Amino acid sequence: MKLHSGLVLSSLLSLGLLTYACANGDTVSGSTGSGGSSPSGNTGGSGNNNTGGSGNNNTGGNNNPTGNSGGSQGAGGTHATGGATGGSNVTGAGTGGTTTTGSTGGTTGTTGAGGSTTVACGTSFSVAANGFVTMPAVGGGCWSGFASDGGDAGSMIMPGTFSMCGSPCSLRMTGTLNASTMTNSYAGYSYLGFNVGQDAAGSAAVTVTPKGSGLTVKFTNASSSTVRIALNADATGATSWCYTATASPATIPYSSFTQQCYNTTTPGPAYAKQAIMSVQLSVPGGATTGPVDVTLVSVTENP
């Protein structure tokens, strides 16, 4: 690479090494070239080659056969050390990020592994004035969550939520239940139940894993409808296990809950104590539209 002649001239003048100026593109005389065959000429060439990295040094070597000034300028390459040192700061920042992520993951794992909520339970099934249910579970845990009821689009079920239930609060659903026939693809149904992994602040419900042997459920059924007790794995009810209760109270081993319990000939897989999100009374529609009047009195987990 060719430097501007003004920069070369200024440098050589400051070092006291230039006795005459050469213009860019001038050819060095033969007598100057023969100086390179002397020992000092060889030294100059070697100094230029070792410095090797800078076009500035090569130009200096052409004007000064000894090569000493070119070697000194090559020391400027040590500035590369500054760049390497700066890189270490990036590593320090990355380490901090890793620590934060690990801490967050640990917190999430603790929440998911819980067999119950952190809500304190009394000694028995209880419903607060705002419809918040607490129920002691086997192993010292507490199942808790808000109660609700509802049904398909063709049913009219009240009250929907129990936030204004009052004290004492009765978990009772009433209304008109849609028919459930082949014509409407067995659409009619209603439900009444509560979450088992929710706090009193109304946070999103999580699942809990039962530790007992089964449940005892008390209810009233003034409408003489079919009542099934259901364990739901999620909020959608896509995965659910149920049991058809013929009387109250109904004491049901967990292994007696099955998927598709309504199919008496070939019910689905039995419940094997998978994590659940809610416990419900499920009431299917009949051959025609009819009334529904069902109350959930209590749920107890058996040791």
Textual characterization of the structure:
With 303 residues, this protein is α+β, with helices and mostly antiparallel strands. The protein has two domains: 1-113, no CATH class; 126-302, Jelly Rolls. The protein is 26% helix and 26% strand. The protein has six helices and twelve strands. The strands form two sheets. Strands 1-2-3-6-11-8-9 form a seven-stranded antiparallel β-sheet, with no helix packed on it. Strands 4-5-12-7-10 form a five-stranded antiparallel β-sheet, with no helix packed on it. Helix 3 packs antiparallel against helix 4. The longest helix is centred in the first third of the chain and has 33 residues, at 80-112. The radius of gyration is 43 Å and the shape is globular.
Q: Find the structural class using helix and strand composition.
A: alpha+beta
Low-confidence stretches: 1-115
The CATH topology of the largest domain is what?
A: Jelly Rolls
What is the number of E strands? 12
Shape-level CATH architecture of the largest domain = Sandwich
Overall pLDDT score: 74
Summed up, the helix count is 6
As a whole number of angstroms, the C-alpha radius of gyration is 43 Å
Report the sheet with the most strands, covering strand number, pairing sense and barrel closure: 7 strands, antiparallel
Q: How far apart are the termini?
A: 88 Å
The CATH top-level class label of the largest domain: Mainly Beta
Assembly category: single chain
Comma- or semicolon-separated keywords:
alpha+beta, 2 domains, 26% strand, 303 residues, disordered N terminus, five-stranded antiparallel beta sheet
